[in-house]
Specification:
Layout lengths: L3 E11 L7 H12 L1 E9 L5 H10 L4 E4 L13 E2 L1 H6 L4 E4 L8 E4 L2 H11 L8 E5 L3 H11 L5 E6 L2 H15 L7 E5 L14 E5 L17 H4 L2 E6 L8 H8 L3 E4 L1 H16 L5 H15 L1
Parallel strand pairs: 1-2, 1-3, 4-6, 7-8, 7-10, 8-9, 10-11, 11-12
Antiparallel strand pairs: 3-5, 5-6
Helix pairs in contact: 1-9, 1-10, 4-5, 4-9, 5-6, 9-10
């Protein structure tokens, strides 16, 4: 398709970030819609986040995604954080602030909508379900918020540091209390066996840590077959390898397992639409997903 207009520059900041598949996704969307843009990964070293944001603004970068470890750390350096991201306390999408008196970026979060759309595509409903979230980092926070805000009956947030899980659960419950929802319970990861009661295949489990990421493909957060008897749907938000040990254990015990590639796709769809004021056609999203599959499988 013919490209129109001046070249717009977008990117992603993180540490590490060299492995990112986001340029492939956004390039596919741009080709489909005839938008002239480039999308660049920016490795931001520890202690350089504020300087990187100022530099990006000065270089007229129109928007950026934010990945680990900066989804929470970026917030103090933004001109504004939208209501959804503020409620979650995490940002993964930056939009250039175009107000005359501002010089910087506005923070949004498309991880929540990306996970929601991925689960919807896979035919999984959260209504009245009990959900276990493994990990309380930026992605775990997004997943817990998505489930708590999406009609889940109960959300258990498990983390190695109970203090971290307590803090995140408290923030989510506080943000949703105005709607009469306080359904997130923090637990130490080592206490997971307290949840292994009742009927089998009871939980939706979302694995939100980097454990099992290539090349450490034999690692898993919980290596206990008893746990997986209680999992009916397992989401591992890792997508390299294509099938993690967590997913294998879910399948071996009769559950259905999914990786995080569709979440990656749909959070990118939402970010692209915010940046460009357009709608990504379903055909373009399908094409990007197929490219991702071809590259990873």
């Amino acid at each position: 398709m013919q490209m129109n207009g001046k070249t717009k520059v977008y990117g992603i900041i993180g540490n590490p970030v060299e492995h990112t598949l986001s340029p492939l996704i956004h390039g596919t969307f741009a080709d489909a819609l005839g938008i002239n843009l480039v999308y660049v990964p920016f490795h931001v070293a520890d202690g350089q986040l504020e300087a990187a944001l100022k530099g990006a603004y000065g270089l007229n970068i129109q928007g950026m995604n934010v990945t680990v470890p900066y989804k929470n750390a970026v917030i103090p350096f933004l001109t504004e954080v939208d209501a959804g991201a503020a409620m979650m306390g995490a940002v993964n999408t930056l939009v250039r602030d175009r107000r005359d008196d501002r010089e910087g970026f506005i923070g949004c979060n498309t991880d929540t909508s990306g996970l929601w759309r991925a689960m919807e595509q896979d035919g999984i409903s959260l209504k009245n379900e009990e959900v276990i979230i493994l990990g309380a980092g930026g992605v775990g926070r997004a997943a817990a918020f998505t489930c708590a805000n999406g009609e889940a009956k109960k959300v258990y947030l498990l983390n190695r540091s109970i203090a971290r899980a307590d803090a995140v659960a408290g923030e989510i419950n506080s943000s949703l209390s105005r709607y009469g929802k306080e359904c997130v319970t923090a637990m130490a990861l080592s206490d997971y066996r307290k949840l292994l009661t009742g009927a089998e295949n009871r939980y939706i489990v979302i694995q939100c840590t980097s454990v099992g990421l290539a090349p450490n493909v034999d690692d898993v957060v919980i290596d206990d077959g008893d746990f997986y008897h209680y999992v009916k749907f397992g989401y591992d938000l890792i997508y390299t390898p294509w099938e993690t040990k967590f997913m294998q254990l879910v399948k071996d015990n009769g559950g259905l397992a999914y990786n995080g590639l569709k979440m990656l796709l749909y959070q990118a769809v939402d970010a692209f639409e915010i940046w460009n004021g357009c709608k990504v056609p379903g055909e373009a999203a399908d094409k990007a997903y197929q490219k991702l599959c071809d590259q990873l499988r």
